[in-house]
Amino acid sequence: MSAKLASLVVLLLVIHVPSSSADDDGHQFIYQGFAASDLALDGLAAVTPGGLLALTNATFQAKAHAFRPAPVHFLNASSAAASNATTGRALSFSTCFVFAIVCDYEGLSDHGLAFVVAPTTNFSAAKAGQYLGVFGAINGTASDPVLAVELDTIMNPELRDINSNHVGVDVNSLVSEQATPAGYYDDAAGGALRELQLNSRKPMQVWVDYDGQAGQLDVTLAPVQVPKPSRPLITTAVDLSTIVARGPMYVGFSSATGVMVTHHYVLGWSFSLDGPAPPLDVSKLPVLPRVGPKPRSKVLDVLLPLGTALLVAAALAAVFFAVWRRRRFSEVREDWEDEFGPHRFSYKDLFHATNGFSDRNLLGVGGFGRVYKGGVLPSSSGLEIAVKRVSHDSRQGVREFVAEVVSIGRLRHRNLVQLLGYCRRKGELILVYDYMANGSLDKYLHDQHVPVLSWHERYRIIKGVAASLLYLHEDWEQVVIHRDVKASNVLLDHEMNGRLGDFGLARLYDHGSDPQTTHVVGTMGYLAPELVRTGKATTSTDVFSFGVFLLEVACGRRPIDRDVNRDGRVVLVDWVIERHRNGSLLDVVDPRLVGMYEVEEATLVLKLGLMCAHPSPNVRPSMRRVVQYLDSDQTVPLPDLSPSYYTSYSMMSLMQNDGFDSYIMSSGKSHPSMTSIGLSSVSVLSEGR
Fold first, then answer.
1. How many domains are contained in the chain?
2. Which of 53, 269, 345, 462 gives a 20 to 30 Å CA spacing to 319?
3. How sure is the predictor about 563, in pLDDT bands with cuts at 50, 70 and 90?
């Protein structure tokens, strides 16, 4: 009896242990599920009890890797490949795998996953989010030679993604060598192209075939129940020998999370060097977990009223206790939030993270809200947060909340403050952001008690804000007009990188459409002169505000400052123009720099600030042209801005003529801006601070 039991155990192990070819060097292997796999797992990657390779879970901003532990020798694998080794060509290989992307919200998902060929399994320097755990944040490049086939479900314009549902071939960079929308050529329909949704929650099969002789890589995609199509989705030239020249390579998978709860699964995987990959038996693959709650039993509907009737007294006591407890952490939910809202935080978690919204955690007070520093939430993957509370009593506060949830929640740029999530309570609105450790920029420009920013730091911040405005104006799916570009709304992360925040006054419209006239909002000193006349906020009015911002950063003075000599006020633009006409432009550079700055860069910033803050909107450059100037693009030289370029105008007189004089001469002061996340000045035309 014991001998039969031992035989049965051996048989079960043979069935469940991933099979591989008889080659000792592991040139061929197959995993029909991963219950007893020998993969090297890293980060979030784990094998479920059912045999699924779960690359990610509900943790945010984290990485996951799963690699075959034995390296593959693409150049000198066997005597049969001696000709390839002699010529230096990489051997052919073939792999196929079944994957599924499952999100709690139908039709939505986080970043995708990638099949990776790399010389190492150590990706500690790689970034999460859109960098898929393989590449770095600098231009989306890899530190080592890498071949990756990405299955991406988020569109990142800075990485030149074609859409939010594509397959791409990446060589040492996230900027794909070739990319195409997800789909397959259906042989049963005469080769017609069928679209596929990568985040459909359904398993799909991918074939990656490399021809070493031809130097050609084919990528084929299809639903799991469809045989391999005869025509690949992508065919591109790739010289694998340049990637594997350093020696043996590792094959496996990588994925990463952002701010949306998404699960990336691999159900099965096979690989073969110098031959076709063994086919996967779909019937033997593990089953995906159920999405959504389990259907309720009808028996429970019958028994529950009977049990309730027997426990009326206890139930009433429990209800009263629950009501008392829930009122403290009650929230408000509406249908539209399911479509537009990013991840939602519970009020209870935010309450505890801010120590009950204690004054000791208060970062700042703005026109219509308070901002608190929060601790590390379990669902934020170790990120510190900042929490902004806005009252429902303010109609402007509600408008800001809706604008930020709908717009910022979908914006993705390294120089924008990232909206992580939100919460709604009866009587108040709550937004959760990345915590910016170094606070707002205006503190470093105007507070004498903090360290002075070096010129190098200032110039990097300027370029970052310019890049974020270019993304808002031209590179996103809609045109976003910020309407409140100023130093107090530029926040600094732990590396002193500038990030533009506070979209409470933002306006969105489609590319090519005409922005509508609206009431004038913004901050005095940053408002374009034509704004009061037309009431129409445009990208050009944002450029004007950015021009004033440039001068403020370079000079260390506020847009409207006190003139101690004349006991009045002076407009920064007028002051810089006057020095420029006198031939002493560099005299306006912040004296706290004590001459430690790049003359050419300072001259460029000052002249560019005057160009952007020109009273005529037709003269101001676009943000794309501004970025080209700041990048020292020799093909786009800065125009000769001689003093005669500026006609004899006074910004002070222009503002007085346009109805700004009462605000300029007023002595009322607004609340100090917060130190880590921007709060917009809700009062129309509040004074710049």
1. 3
2. 345
3. low
Structural domain includes residue 10:
no
Write out the H or E segment, with its range, that includes residue 270: strand 262-273
Domain match, 670 and 573 both: yes
| Domain boundary, last residue among 281, 298, 327 | 281
d(CA 383, CA 152): 24
pLDDT of residue 139: 59
Which among 110, 484, 502, 590 is annotated as catalytic?
484
Q: Are residues 249 and 338 both part of a single domain? A: no
Q: Which of 403, 386, 429, 433 is nearest to 340 (CA)?
A: 403
Same structural domain, 429 and 466: no
Predicted TM-score (pTM) of this structure: 0.51
Residue 108 lies in a domain: yes
Rounded Cα–Cα distance for residues 461 and 466 (Å): 9
Residue 434 in contact with residue 415, Cβ under 8 Å?
Answer: no
Indicate whether 372 and 270 sit together in one domain: no
The whole-angstrom separation of Cα 561 and Cα 541 is 21
Residues 89-137: pLDDT tens digits? 899 999 999 999 998 777 777 788 999 999 999 998 888 888 888 888 6
CATH code of 610's domain: 1.10.510.10
Q: How far is CA 33 from the centre of its chain?
A: 32
What average pLDDT score do residues 326-346 get? 68
Assign 165 a pLDDT band (cuts: 50, 70, 90): very high
Range of the domain at 123: 18-281
**CATH number assigned to the domain comprising residue 137:** 2.60.120.200
Is 493 marked active-site?
A: no
Could you tell me if 675 and 450 are in contact, meaning their C-beta atoms sit under 8 angstroms apart? no
Which residue pairs from 395-403 have beta carbons closer than 8 angstroms and sit at least 24 positions apart in sequence?
Answer: 396/368, 396/682, 397/368, 397/369, 397/429, 397/682, 398/429, 399/504, 400/368, 400/504, 400/505, 400/680, 400/682, 401/429, 401/431, 403/503, 403/504, 403/505, 403/506
658: its two tokens: 């346009």
- For 71, half-sphere exposure in the C-beta direction (CA atoms, 13 angstrom radius) is 14
Q: Are 210 and 277 members of one domain?
A: yes
**Shared-domain flag, residues 201 and 249:** yes
According to DSSP, the β-strands at 234-237 and 216-223 are antiparallel
User: Could you tell me the pLDDT band of residue 273, with boundaries at 50, 70 and 90?
Assistant: very high
When the pLDDT of each residue in the chain is averaged and rounded to a whole number, the result is 81
CA distances to 168, 326, 544, 642, 654 from 614, rounded to whole Å, are 44, 56, 7, 14, 11
CATH number at residue 362: 3.30.200.20
Which one is predicted more confidently, 393 or 56? 56
Last residue of a domain, one of 418, 434, 450: 434
Residue 543 lies in a domain: yes
Same domain flag for 477 and 560: yes
Q: For residues 54 and 397, which has the higher predicted lDDT (pLDDT)?
A: 54
Contacts of 581 (CB under 8 A, 6+ apart): 643, 646
Alpha carbon distances (Å) from 295 to 264, 353, 433? 24, 35, 36
Backbone angles phi, psi at 660, to 5 degrees: -95, -5
Domain match, 416 and 471 both: no
- Residue 57 inside a domain? The answer is yes
Work out the average pLDDT over 199-210. 95
